[in-house]
Amino acid sequence: MTASVPGEFRLHRSQFIKCAPVSRELRKMTTEVLVHTGQHYDDNMSKVFFYDLEIPEPDYNLGVGSGYHGEQTGEMLKGIEDVLLKEQPDYVLVYGDTNSTLAGALTAAKLHIPVAHVEAGLRSFNRRMPEEINRVLTDHISTLLFCPTKTAVKNLAQEGITNGVHLSGDVMYDALLYNIQIAERKSTIIKQLKLRPKEYLLTTLHRAENTDRIENLNNILTAFVDLSEAGQTVVFPVHPRTRKQLDALDRKAHSNLLMIDPVSYLDMLVLEKNAKVILTDSGGVQKEAYWFQVPCVTLRDETEWVETVESGWNILVGADKKKIVEIALSSTSPATYSNYYGDGATAKRITELLQARFW
Ligand code: UDP
């Protein structure tokens, strides 16, 4: 039996995307107990996500809401401990780098239940990022570590972690391959927003370093407005955290800047595939841009997905307004593309490795 902890929906939709393909494979072979740490399962947007991704109904919803890191993580530790004591799983599977990831791993490790980490070994080498703390700690108490890239394997080796490390590939690539055709059949977002393929920029923004630092937020938003004034259509699905911060700002607007609610995963895939350039501070979106071979401008100073930068498909610009505009307007596709992120069968590989170790 597996206890899986994918995380809170509202701030961590990408954990659900990672969980979907793995859960599908696991359930062919064993019983999975799915633990949802967040409270937003019942709202509209969350339901759409579960439905689109075909994620089974969680067995537990701990109802932990937003809050300071300590408060949120503490509540999760308590809730997860109750579940693990009751269910006695053979191991606990955690995804990514959220507070839920750390809480799941820490609770299991203290109860001597082995931890398996999907998306192990990623590093930004910036310990001011809450995600970096969550990753480092989770990796150091995991028994099995599934790395999406060779870089991740190397990062772990540099910290002395070599046992139980597997280069598995990236489960988000599995999810993209599984869903893109469904998305292209079902999604009407391009028509709805009256967009022309390859004639708009797509942007997302939600990292604390950008949303919680007003100077960064202001610079980035001004860059989006400048791009709109330069004649570019900018599609901006606004994350709830960012919306809250933007509402407090005296912000400029422009009719070419389409600030919309977050879209479903299927709509997002279609928007990404048809974008001319993608501007983002999201990890998942940087990779999806790469897989669709759409040039990416990353609104951060560093990235965990270094292969996208080294291959020329991704450029780091931070929150520098001038750079954002210049690079977005001049971005072109490099002549070559190689896939560093596996073959789309990562979830199956992970399930087989879990089976070999624990069943
Ligand atoms: N995404 C989505 N709808 C949106 C924006 C993003 O479905 O309105 C998806 C996106 O395609 C990607 C994932 O959410 O798969 C990325 O999650 P997020 O932007 O929260 O960032 P990350 O946790 O990867 O940094």
Give the key terms.
359 residues; alpha/beta; Rossmann fold; 2 domains; 7-stranded parallel sheet; 6-stranded parallel sheet; binds uridine-5'-diphosphate
Explain what you see.
This protein is of the alpha/beta class and 359 residues long. The protein folds into 2 domains: 7-170 and 342-358, 3-Layer(aba) Sandwich (Rossmann fold); 181-330, 3-Layer(aba) Sandwich (Rossmann fold). It is built from 16 helices and 13 strands. It has helices at residues 13-29, 44-53, 69-87, 99-110, 130-140, 150-158, 171-186, 189-192, 208-211, 214-229, 240-247, 265-274, 283-291, 306-310, 321-330, 346-358; strands at 2-5, 32-38, 60-64, 91-95, 115-118, 144-147, 165-167, 200-204, 233-237, 257-260, 277-280, 296-298, 314-316. The strands form 2 sheets. The chain has a 7-stranded parallel beta sheet with strand order 3-2-1-4-5-6-7, sandwiched between helices. Strands 10-9-8-11-12-13 form a 6-stranded parallel beta sheet, sandwiched between helices. α2 (44-53) links the parallel β2 (32-38) and β3. It is globular, with a radius of gyration of 20 Å. The mean pLDDT is 93. The structure holds uridine-5'-diphosphate (UDP). Uridine-5'-diphosphate binds at residues 13-14, 17, 204, 206, 237, 262-263, 265, 268, 282-285, 288.
